[in-house]
Write a structure and sequence with these properties.
There is one protein chain. By secondary structure, the chain is an alpha/beta fold. The chain has 14 helices and 18 strands. Strands 1-5-4-2-3-6 form a six-stranded mixed beta sheet, with helices on both faces. A five-stranded mixed beta sheet has the order 8-7-9-10-11, sandwiched between helices. A three-stranded antiparallel beta sheet has the order 16-18-17.
Length: 443
Amino acid sequence: MARLFGTDGVRGLANKELTAPLALQLGEAAARVLAKNPLGHRPKAIVGADTRQSSAMLGEALAAGLASAGVDVEHIDVIPTPGVAYLTAEEDYDLGVMISASHNPMQDNGIKFINANGFKLDDAIEDEIEKLLGTQWERPIAEGVGTITDAAMVSDRVYMDHLIRVGEPLHGLRIALDCANGATSDVAPRVFQKLGADVVVINAAPDGKNINDNAGSTHPEQLQALTVATKADFGFAFDGDADRCLAVNSRGELVDGDMLMGMLAVAMKNDGRLKRNTLVLTVMSNLGLHLAMRDQGIKTISTKVGDRYVLEEMLAHGYNIGGEQSGHVINLDYATTGDGTLTAVLVASEVAKQGKTIEELTSFVQKLPQTLINVPNVDKSRTGEVSKEVADVEMELGETGRVLLRASGTEPLIRVMVEAATQEQADSSAQYLADIVANKLAL
């Protein structure tokens, strides 16, 4: 049987794969695992959600499950995932829960558990929760039952105050925001207005159905057009739960997570704040970023794809910034997880502080042309059989190119990615390797 928890909590089609009864059982099981280690006080949890129509249903069921096991629950309704993580750690909750499927379409949803320190739960604890689902247990009665209260206004203000404290005054800057009709639709505009920016906002009117709908970081075209049309200095696009952020410069050109991380790492190095002089990336980050960091005297380390692997590397070795090309940037000086609104505030603050444009601050990162080809119907376990051909191509590409073969986690498919000095070279090398993979590894 497949593991219920994936790389980012429990996720599935709302009300079919992820149902209210399952959310209730997850709340009960999480509380029972929490109770295995006596806290010396009545356990307290916080539950937040994004703007999906199904989030209220799942959030109420989850809260009921926690309360039925003796946990006092504070419900804060709509808030970004990093907001729940920040509040869980800073306000001394024993558990945080976020109802969201991040950048997925509206019909999906998810449940993410966060520990008392603001980090996602370890695999071992998730496995404990899963084992307890649907098992018999003795429920508390009378005063042993937990309470459920609404803490939306207080919690919302605490998280926003944190973001505002981090930022620099932004007077004189016009900033465009695409909130994806998601969890930061209220938070991001207010934060940037409080910092003094002239803010232009789109996709900040969630109706339960329009989250991520041709909007936000997965569909930045609207923001690109808006930034140019309104003569904004730059813009930011978030995803549904606002743990990711991409930027757009004044010319309407996309500034992805690689470029944002490079910009922030250099600023941190110049301020003496870059721990161990290192930026943590995943294998999907463009080789151009690695070369740019080398030229800036900054080391790079690559992990498997997934923000949890980036975070594990950061915590294990004391690094303070890392992330993914998709815009999931983790800055441990201010947060325990990727925070799109925080990333936007930090980037805008560097523009204001240095008096330079985003174009100028990211121009040192020269992205190499990249080609990605998905090869279906192949045996993912046999990638070693094409290692010679991969090595030959890598030798031909030299220092200004690389090859990455990644097996899909859910399909009989291998992704062939090639970066090279020219687009033509990237295209031809990727197609050459894709043909070899298709022929040699066919099912």
